[in-house]
Amino acid sequence: MKNSNTYNIALLFLRVGFSGMLLTHGIPKLMKLVSGDFSFADPIGIGAPASLIIAVLCEVLFPILIIVGYKTRLASIPVIATMLIAVFVHHANDILGVKEKAVLFAIGFITIALLGAGRYSVDKK
Hints:
The protein has 125 residues and is an all-alpha fold. The chain has one domain (5-124). Helices cover 72% and strands 0% of the residues. The protein is built from 4 helices and no strands. Helix 3 (72-90) runs antiparallel to helix 4 (96-115). It is globular. The two termini are 20 Å apart. The model has no long low-confidence stretch (mean pLDDT 96).
């Protein structure tokens, strides 16, 4: 099954779909950072500017690496960590409906980390 074309297209679709959707959350954070606005939540106590920079890396840089399939499993780890922090720290007291997107992103990126990039990736070229 791992060598089937359908399996590899599905992995590509999973990588591009989840990473592309996460970019819609990360790019506004990048624009905020570039504009010099460092106000941001500080869920793990490292300061708002550091939290914003880490969020930008995890929601922009690593998803781009995942889209192209470069070091996909490794690039998924910080994204997963960010989503788990969003679920269990930042939104810890919120109802499921509020934290649902972070839960879904975590599930998607955990799946990507477990399956890898597939044939249609930089890693396989």
